[in-house]
Amino acid sequence: MTPIQSNGYEVFFDDELKDLKDFLDNSDYSKVFFLTDLNTSEHCMPLISQLFPSLDHYDIIEVDPGEENKNIDYCIGVWQMLLDFGADRNSLLINLGGGVITDMGGFAASTFKRGIDFVQVPTTLLAQVDASVGGKTGIDLGNIKNIIGTFTQPKAVFISSKFLETLEHRQIISGFAEIVKHGIIADRDYFNKLKDIDPLKTDKETIYHSVEIKNFVVTTDPFEKSIRKTLNFGHTIGHAVETYSLKNDNRALLHGEAIAVGMICEAFLASRHNGLSSEELVEITEYIRSVFPDYHLKPDSYSDILEFMQNDKKNVNGQIGFALPSEIGKCDFNIYLTKEQIIESLNYYAELGR
């Protein structure tokens, strides 16, 4: 597949990661580091070793998996390990993992000694179609997702579908949420095609088209001043639901599962406040519920969810901001709604499972 040109770097699609090998062979980095979590160390590093038998001059920095560990304490640990391993400003950090690794690794690299180079090797469907593309890096602060971070572009992104073979089905379904989002905000025909796809068999062409959609948006608006805000559809409520679940549920929602909840709630808001037709609201709702598990959203959780939303990055002057579709394939942004309107959307979702 032809590499996609992004903001000063390329996104490569190659199951054998030959482009990564070429990148490393043609570079003169003083030191190379892999940032992994326990899962990618076990399941993905063996593939790296298999594909690059001659690659032996590197160190591995390993962190615990999970969104709850994407914080400053773990980031300090990454910085400390870079220091201990003798990293200098001509070092390279290879972030091998899902969205937590690509987000935190990008942030750690962009701030270590005022910035060292990094590349993204996303190993989850979620990271391949979303987190690894666009130059956003970040960590969470307390209960607030991605509130600390930078806009820093990687040197390259390398996508191999072989890594998806290492994932549990639940992780693949979670990643599919961002693909669905791309169809809703930007491409009606794509959304229609997704209905005929088994998410567990998401093919390379689907991944490629989703990256094309996201890449167009982030290259048009690299610093999220305008159209890039449409990528937040489903995330204002979804992030808050994800945070609530992480704090309160024994089996916390994955990112994509929470975004699925958010997309249904925000589609409801779009139908009330941005012209989305009732027919398309039903279409979005029914399709998302056919792919993702229902979440038992309880009224006594609303106050916590609203509190988490109050600290969202998209807010202005205390107003909670949304990106809402006007129809499937078109999305607007900078729409500010009240707590009462948001509660109405939460009630809409809660009633669906009854």
Write a short abstract of this structure:
The protein is α/β, with parallel strands linked by helices. Helix content is 47%, strand content 18%. It folds into 2 domains: 4-166, Rossmann fold; 170-352, Up-down Bundle (Dehydroquinate synthase-like, alpha domain).
Please tell me about this protein's structure.
- With 354 residues, the protein is an alpha/beta fold.
- It has two domains: 163 residues, Rossmann fold; 183 residues, Dehydroquinate synthase-like - alpha domain (Dehydroquinate synthase-like, alpha domain, Up-down Bundle).
- 47% of the residues lie in helices and 18% in strands.
- A hairpin with a 2-residue loop joins β10 and β11.
- α5 packs across α6 and α11 runs antiparallel to α12.
- The protein is globular.
Helix content: 40-55%
- Terminal Cα span: 45 Å
Instruction: Please state the second-level CATH architecture of the largest domain.
Output: Up-down Bundle
CATH H-tier superfamily of the largest domain: Dehydroquinate synthase-like - alpha domain
Unreliable parts: none
Q: How would you classify the helix and strand content by structural class?
A: alpha/beta
Radius of gyration: 20 Å
Estimated share of beta-strand residues: 15-25%
- Supply the number of structural domains: 2
User: How are strands sequenced across the largest beta sheet?
Assistant: 4-3-5-6
Please tally the β strands and state the result: 11
Q: Please write the CATH class name of the largest domain.
A: Mainly Alpha
Organism: Arcticibacter pallidicorallinus
Cofactor: Co(2+); NAD(+); Zn(2+)
Domain 3-dehydroquinate synthase C-terminal: 175-315
Function: Catalyzes the conversion of 3-deoxy-D-arabino-heptulosonate 7-phosphate (DAHP) to dehydroquinate (DHQ).
